[in-house]
Every structure is written in C-alpha cells, then in structure tokens.
C-alpha cells in the first residue's frame, strides 16, 4: 500500500465533505472508495444504536443484510471490534462466529468468511459504529493494511459526521431523548423502525415528516398488516409532541360501554365494577398524541361523543358532570373505506371529515418492490437470535418466491412466514446447522413453484431464446410484463412501479408489443 494509492482513494471523499449528497449515496461512495483501497469480497458500514448495530450500507453482501439488526452481545467479533481503539484483524482460523457467514452476495453455497478485519468509528470521541471488510480467501489481508484502514477510518468518521449534520440526525439534546424514553417505557411502547428503500416507502416517509411537524388530525388507511400503528408512532416521533406520550387504543377490542370508559375515564360508581375514579386515554395523552386503531369499528353513539371532544377539547368522565380540558393530537387508523361507510349511513359524515383532515395511505407490501427482502432480513435476524443460530439466510429461489408473491397479509404475513419457516426448517435438520438456509420449499408459499419460474436466472432464460434478436427481446418483454400484471391483478400503476417504469411509458410499451 503506497502513499499515492491511499491519497487517490481518499481525495474523492475529501471532496464529498463539502457537497450535499443523499445519505445513502454518501455511504455508498464511502464503501466504494474503501474497496478500491483494500480489495475484498464484502464491506459494510454499521451504526451503533444502543445495543444494536444497524447496517447503513453494504457492498458485496445480500440485500437482506440492510434489514438485519445485529445485537452486539450475540456477535463476539462485533464486540471485539467495538472494544478496540483501532483496527482489528481476526486470524483466518479464529473460532469466533462471523455474522456475515452465508451472506456474501450471489453465493448459494454455504461459504464462510475466512479473513476479516474491521475498525470502530468515533464521533466526538464516542463510538459511533463500525467499518468491516471480509474475504472468502484465508490470509487475504496483510498486517500492513491495518494502517491503511486506520487512515481511511479517520476520514470515514468525518464523512459520517458531515452526513449526520446535513441530515440533522442528531438535532435533539440528550435530556429531550431521555424524557421521551421515560414516556415510551411508561406507555409500554417498543421503539420500532420503518424499514424500506422503495419509492412508495420513501414517499410515505416524506409525508410522515411533512404532517408530523403539524398538529393536523391524520387518518391512516391501508390494508390489514401494512403497519399502520408503526406509521402513527413515526408521525408522533416527528412532531413537536415527541417528548410527550403517545397513547393507543384498539377500538375493535372493546364493547361500546368500555370504549367510552377507556376514552373518557369514569368516576367511582359510574357502572358496576367501577370501584375508583379512573382517567381515560384522552387525559393520559394530554399534551401528546392519541392513536385510535380500527376507528371504523366505533358505534355512531361513540362517534358523536368523540366529535364533541375533538371540537372543544373538553370531556366528561362517565358518571361525572365535571369538564376536563385536554390538548391532544389525534391520529386514527382503519382498513375500511370510511367514505363508503358514510354513504351507506354506517358512519357520521361530520366525524369522518374531522378525522380525515390529512388522509395518509400506507402502501401494500406488493407495491414496495424489493422492500420485501429488507424486511425479510430484519425478521431473519430476529429469528436467528431467538433460535440461537449463527446464521439464518435465504436461498436465491426463496428470495425469488418472496418477490413473486402477492402478500395479501402484507408485512404481518411476512413476519409470521419467516418465523414459521425458520422453525420448520430447523426441525427438519438431523443435526443443528451452523448456517441455516431457507429455500422456496421451506417458505411453502401458494403457487411458489409457478411464480418463481417467472423469475428464473438469466442464463436459463437465454437457453430458451432462439431466432431473431428483436423478436426474442419482445417475446421476453411480453412475458415479463404479463407476469407482473398477473401478480398485481392487472393494476397497471402497481405493475409499472415494480418494473421501474413510468405508468404512461409502460402503457406505450404494452401497446407496441400488442398487449393492449
């Protein structure tokens, strides 16, 4: 490693420090420069978030790695890297399990990483995360390369610092964070993350950030299992009320009389079993946010009483004439078409309009393209930890099956599928494996064999292509578009999003191919 080659690799990053780049692009260029300086089979940048390491960018690792969350205490190599003040290289015969075993991109064989080194990144003298490099060949790295990695890590830390300032990721002071954490723990909420990189997901995040800064009432709509509660929590976290509690109530889980008690509270003797005065969800959420899930299940009577509170900010506990003033931001969610419910007389029009000041549609999983793989990685890592495995991964045919499936149950269905499939696959092993790979057969998705055939490898497709090049290309385009339309029930807009095309361009292409 010469000083000239080191300078050549670092100069573009120095230039990037003064440029405003998207966070993802900045981190991608960082890893690209590192692999040019220190050639390897895989590289990753991970941020330390409490006791977890969160991948921000990977190069040479499977897509689902970005969705994984590595608990430091369960990965000895990560622990060793974070405990060191500088770069660390592990011996090729180290008996410490490597968290990337089986995750090298494009390899279905159970190949293990044989040479590994990494370096902690420090921001303001505090550990921020890790840079890691891995190779499949033993003794790939040399001791001299540790010095180059240390030099690179210093500039990488400056890059990360610049990105965090530009994106304002550290714009809250510590005491605000601590207060929010106290409220979160008191309300029993678990901090969860919205994972995705698709255009549909990014548009949703943009809308969350837009409406989060306001005090508007939000009506979240979407199919069952898309994560409406997670969206509500994200809106609250992006609001000026983030240091106050967010209180949730599932309106479908209680009968009318108990819904009123839960919402407005009651006084002693208000009904049989009311032994003491009790505050309702509105009072508990005072100053913060109230999230009403399954709001389409509320009766007309409860809707009328809620409308009064939303209009005046005043409520009465059941059995009491005393008025209580509350300051609450309301977020509601439903999988029903409330506009149709209003037209049929099952829902109050005035209450519906009060709820839908800012309607927000959460996209279905089938409309989020390859986000299914990132979410799979998140659930795979959760199950790997619970099952005590070194590595839990997806084969190529399993990834193809996940991408081809329609996901009527959305993210919740995916979560359950990964957990069920991992448990069944482990149960079928005669001996406990070091690396457990899930195949399409393990997933057992409906029509998986037929659907994955549509996503066959390019080489196999080429074997079936003969004759004129233009004719073969158009035949393949018709097959690809036709299969995509079938998956999306001939919804052209959804098919265009998956294919990465503009809706109008897809229409023109289909017309040219004789499909319209």
Tell me the layout of helices and strands:
Layout (H helix, E strand, L loop, with lengths): L2 H14 L6 H15 L4 E8 L2 E8 L10 E2 L4 H8 L4 E3 L24 E9 L2 E10 L9 H23 L6 H13 L12 H14 L5 E4 L6 H10 L8 E5 L5 H9 L16 H4 L4 E5 L6 H13 L1 E3 L6 E3 L3 E6 L3 H6 L5 H7 L2 E4 L9 H17 L3 E4 L1 H9 L5 H18 L7 E4 L1 H4 L4 H6 L4 H6 L5 H19 L4 H8 L3 H10 L4
Parallel strand pairs: 7-12, 7-13, 8-9, 9-12, 14-15
Antiparallel strand pairs: 1-2, 1-6, 2-3, 4-5, 5-6, 10-11
Describe the structure.
The radius of gyration is 27 Å and the shape is globular. The strands form four sheets. It has a six-stranded antiparallel β-sheet, with helices on both faces. It folds into four domains: 3-167, Beta-Lactamase; 200-365, Rossmann fold, CATH 3.40.50.300; 369-453, Helicase, Ruva Protein, domain 3; 458-512, Homeodomain-like (Arc Repressor Mutant, subunit A), CATH 1.10.10. With 516 residues, the chain is α/β, with parallel strands linked by helices. The protein is built from 21 helices and 15 strands.
List the domain count as a whole number. 4
Write down the CATH topology of the largest domain.
Rossmann fold
CATH superfamily membership of the largest domain: P-loop containing nucleotide triphosphate hydrolases
Distance between the termini: 59 Å
Mean pLDDT: 82
Task: Return Rg in Å.
Answer: 27 Å
CATH class of the largest domain: Alpha Beta
Helical percentage: 40-55%
How many β strands by DSSP?
Answer: 15
Low-pLDDT parts are 168-183, 185-190, 448-465
Can you tell me the overall shape?
globular
The largest beta-sheet arranges its strands as 3-2-1-6-5-4
Q: Helical stretch count?
A: 21
Structural class: alpha/beta
Main pleated sheet: 6 strands, antiparallel
CATH architecture of the largest domain: 3-Layer(aba) Sandwich
What proportion strand? 15-25%
């Amino acid at each position: 490693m010469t000083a000239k080659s080191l300078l050549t690799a670092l100069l573009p990053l120095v230039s990037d420090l003064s440029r405003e780049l998207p966070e993802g692009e900045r981190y991608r260029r960082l890893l690209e420069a590192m692999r040019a300086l220190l050639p390897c089979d895989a590289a990753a940048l991970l941020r330390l978030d409490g006791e977890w390491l969160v991948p921000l960018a990977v190069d040479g690792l499977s897509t689902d790695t970005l969705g994984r969350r590595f608990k430091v205490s369960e990965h000895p190599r990560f622990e060793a890297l974070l405990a060191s003040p500088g770069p660390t290289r592990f011996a090729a015969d180290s008996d410490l399990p490597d968290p990337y075993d089986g995750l090298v991109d494009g390899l279905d064989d159970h190949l293990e990483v044989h040479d590994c080194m990494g370096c902690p990144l420090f921001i303001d003298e505090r550990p921020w995360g890790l840079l890691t490099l891995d190779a499949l060949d033993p003794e790939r790295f040399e001791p001299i390369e540790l010095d180059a990695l240390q030099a690179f890590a210093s500039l990488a830390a400056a890059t990360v610092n610049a990105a965090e300032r530009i994106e304002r990721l550290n714009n809250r002071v510590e005491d605000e964070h601590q207060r929010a954490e106290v409220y979160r723990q008191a309300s029993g909420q678990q901090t969860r993350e919205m994972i995705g990189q698709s255009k549909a997901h990014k548009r949703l995040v943009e809308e969350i950030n837009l409406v989060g800064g306001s005090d508007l009432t939000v009506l979240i709509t979407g199919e069952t299992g898309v994560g409406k509660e997670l969206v509500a929590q994200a809106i609250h976290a992006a609001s000026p009320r983030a240091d106050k509690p967010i209180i949730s109530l599932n309106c479908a889980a209680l009968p009318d009389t108990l819904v009123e008690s839960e919402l407005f509270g009651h006084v002693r003797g208000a009904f049989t079993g009311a032994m003491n005065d009790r505050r309702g969800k509105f009072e508990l959420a005072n100053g913060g946010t109230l999230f009403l899930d399954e709001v389409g299940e509320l009766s007309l009577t409860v809707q009328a009483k809620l409308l009064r509170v939303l209009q005046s900010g005043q409520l009465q506990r059941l059995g009491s004439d005393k008025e209580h003033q509350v300051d609450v931001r309301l977020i509601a969610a439903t999988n029903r078409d409330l506009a149709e419910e209003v037209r049929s007389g099952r829902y109050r029009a005035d209450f519906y309009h009060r709820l839908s000041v800012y309607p927000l549609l959460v996209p279905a999983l089938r409309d989020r393209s390859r986000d299914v793989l990132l979410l799979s990685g998140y659930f795979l890592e959760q199950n790997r930890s619970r099952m005590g495995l070194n590595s839990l991964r997806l084969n190529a045919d399993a990834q193809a099956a996940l991408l081809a499936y329609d996901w009527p149950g959305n993210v919740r269905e995916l979560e359950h599928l990964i957990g069920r499939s991992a448990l069944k696959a482990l149960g079928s092993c005669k001996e406990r494996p070091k690396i457990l790979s899930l195949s399409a057969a393990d997933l057992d998705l409906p029509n998986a064999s037929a659907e994955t055939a549509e996503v066959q490898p390019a080489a196999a497709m080429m074997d079936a292509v003969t004759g004129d090049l233009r004719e073969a290309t158009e035949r393949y385009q018709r097959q690809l578009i036709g299969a995509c339309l079938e998956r999306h029930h001939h919804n052209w807009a959804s098919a265009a999003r998956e294919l990465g095309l503009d809706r109008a361009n897809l229409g023109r292409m289909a017309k040219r191919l004789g499909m319209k």
